[in-house]
Write a structure and sequence with these properties.
Structural class: alpha/beta
InterPro entries: Amidohydro-rel, Metal-dep_hydrolase_composite, Metal_Hydrolase, MTA/SAH_deaminase
GO molecular function: hydrolase activity, acting on carbon-nitrogen (but not peptide) bonds
Helix content: 25-40%
Largest sheet: 9 strands, mixed
Keywords: Hydrolase
CATH topology of the largest domain: TIM Barrel
Distance between the termini: 64 Å
Number of helices: 14
Strand content: 15-25%
Number of strands: 17
Number of domains: 2
Radius of gyration: 21 Å
Shape: globular
Family: Belongs to the metallo-dependent hydrolases superfamily. ATZ/TRZ family.
Protein name: Amidohydrolase family protein
Amino acid sequence: MKDSKTTRLLIRDATVLSMDAGVGNLRQGSMLVEGECIAAIVPNLNRDIDLAGVEVIDAKGMIALPGFVDAHRHIWQSPLTMAAADTDLNSYFAQVPGKLAPVYSPEDLWIANRIGALQALNAGITTIFDWCHVLHTPEHADAAIAGLRDSGIRAVFGYGFPNTEPAWSMDSERPVPEDIRRVRRNLLASDESLVTMAMAARGPEQSTLEVTRHDIAVARDLNLLISMHAGNGAFGLPYRSIERMHDAKLMGPDLQYVHGNSLTDESIRRIADSGGHLVCTPTIEMQMQFGYPAATRALAAGVRPGLGVDVVTSTEPSLFPQMAGTLQAARLQALEQGTPNIDSRDVLRFATLDGAASLRLERKTGSLTPGKQADIVLLRPTALTAINDPIGFAALGASSSSVDTVVVAGKVRKRGGALCGIEIEELQRQLEACRDRLFEKSGFQPPHADFPD
């Protein structure tokens, strides 16, 4: 007998893209969710299933797929949408981490993280890695985590460092704050919760090798995934981060490397040999002139990359442009450099199962698999759209406006194109007030500020 308190949800008659070879894809299928997990996926609804007390979502004409996994984002920047639209990496460093980050209060960070996570949910992202490097005080860390929890998203909180002065992020000799141990012990001790913990490490491109060694040791002592930037275009070249970490015997399967554009092929092979992961953020990487995304070189080396939004200061808060940008760049790169080609099925997997694997969450999410957590997105094609290739549409033809329904751990967070239980006007007021405070305290002027009122 089923527990009467268990939430049951039936998504019926959708086109199912499972991202699970054992389940396959269904032109028309139904999914039964019990509690937090997917209980069954069937091509034809079994009339013997007891539907008493089941909430039914009619998904006919919609595409069901795993919730997207944003494997790298600085969520604290959600009030700064397009505030650095035309910057390269050096200008971004000067304006955003250099000028705006130091003035964040704990309240600003709570608002930014909650609303940034809701922006992600609205775009069909059910799992997000929050690479948080505005942890000026313990209260900032508490506020960041509270914002994630209050949103209802599945999140990995990457404990970073204060961003109050360059000494924390430029050839830093300062180790990760000891407060990381308090957060792990008191706030994020469980790896089974909706919000879990990782380390957002500076690595050899932002700190000395001695500090990198120390910080990795702390993360491993706390059993944390370790994420760091590596191969950040021309900026990363002089540091030879992977070579130095390899020589120091610091690499391992618990490391996730972000970007990788300027890494050598040998360095990427070393990531593969160590069991590590790579995450690409294509729109930012190309816009800020890092170079071609490393996705196809990673594939050639045996590393399946995840995708991330990175920063909304220069791109939108969804993975749709990241999937399209990855494919487009790979096609041009194949033409110019002879690198491997990829297709829409590849980039859809990058944005789901591969992203989950880069966060050590592939046993929980990233595919529609009975027994896994029910992290599900329903895409509704816009009017006057004929769906001839559901995979191609999901990867290249959809947008945030196509996201009809979002389910996280069995709970419906968006339905009928609207976030559930959210006062949008009040959140908009909070977001704009937060932005105004940040701009006033920092003296920041957004681009094109001379635009007439």
